[in-house]
Amino acid sequence: MGIATREVLLFISSQFLLAVFTFGNSAKSTFEAMIFVFLKHPFDVGDRCVIDGVQVVVEEVSILTTVFLKYDNEKIYYPNSILATKSISNFNRSPEMRDTVEFELDVSTSVDNISALKAKIKTYIDSKPHLWRPKHNVRVREIVDVNKMKMRLDVTHTINFQNYEEKNDRRSNLVLELRNIFQQLGIKVYQILPPTSSD
Asked: For a disulfide at 102, which of 54, 80, 95, 193, Cβ 3.0-4.6 Å?
C-alpha cells in the first residue's frame, strides 16, 4: 500500500521487542504475585508462618510484596512472586499441634519407677484438659553410652502454635512438672534436652 515500508516495520518491531524485553518480566512477576495473593492465599495478616526455616509473623500483604516480622521485630520484605515458589508453613491454619520433651535417665532406673513416672505424667496431663489432649506417649528411645536411657514424652496441645508464647509457657510448665515427678520418685536425670524437630 506504500505506507508500511521496510524501515517503518523494522522500527515498529524493534520497539515492540524492546517493550517486551523491558516490561515482560515485570508483567510476569506481577501476574505471578496476583495469582499468589488472590488464588493461593496461604496466609493472612497476623498469621505465624515458617519461610526458609525462619519463623515470622505476617505484618502486611500487598499485591507485589509481603512484609514479615521476625521474633526480634526485624522486618523482612518478600516479593510475592518469590514467595509463590517457596514452601510456607502456617501455624494459624494448622490443627492442634504436637510437642515433645526428651530427657535422659540413669540406665539403672527400675521398671517400677518408669511405670510410676508414666502414671504420674498421665495424672498431670489428665488434670489439665484445657491444656493437653489425653493421648500422649512416654517411650524409651535408646540407651546412650551404656549408662543413660534417652526417653521421649510426646504430647498434643489443645492449641496450634499461632500463639507461640502460650505454647512455650505450657511446655515450660510441663518440664517443671517432670522435674517435680523425677524428684518425688527419686529418679536420677542426666538432662532434659531442648526441643527438636526430629520425628
From this structure: 193
Give the distance between the most distant pair of CA atoms in the chain: 103
- Map grid coordinates 510448665 to a residue: 173
Domains of the chain, each with CATH number or no CATH: 6-90 (2.30.30.60), 98-193 (3.30.70.260)
- Inter-residue contact 151 to 104 (CB < 8 Å): yes
Whether 15 has a pLDDT exceeding 70, the answer reads no
Cell numbers given for 195: 526441643
The Cα–Cα gap between 97 and 112 comes to: 31
Give the long-range contacts of residues 162-168, CB within 8 A, separation 24 or more: 162/47, 162/48, 162/91, 162/92, 162/94, 164/48, 164/55, 164/91, 167/97, 167/99
Separation between Cα atoms, residue 134 and residue 156, nearest integer Å: 8
The stretch 55-65 carries a mean pLDDT of: 93
Position with higher pLDDT, 199 vs 34: 34
> Which stretch of DSSP H or E encloses residue 180?
helix 164-185
pLDDT in tens, 115-167: 999 999 999 999 999 999 999 999 999 998 888 999 999 999 999 999 999 99
pTM for the whole structure? 0.74
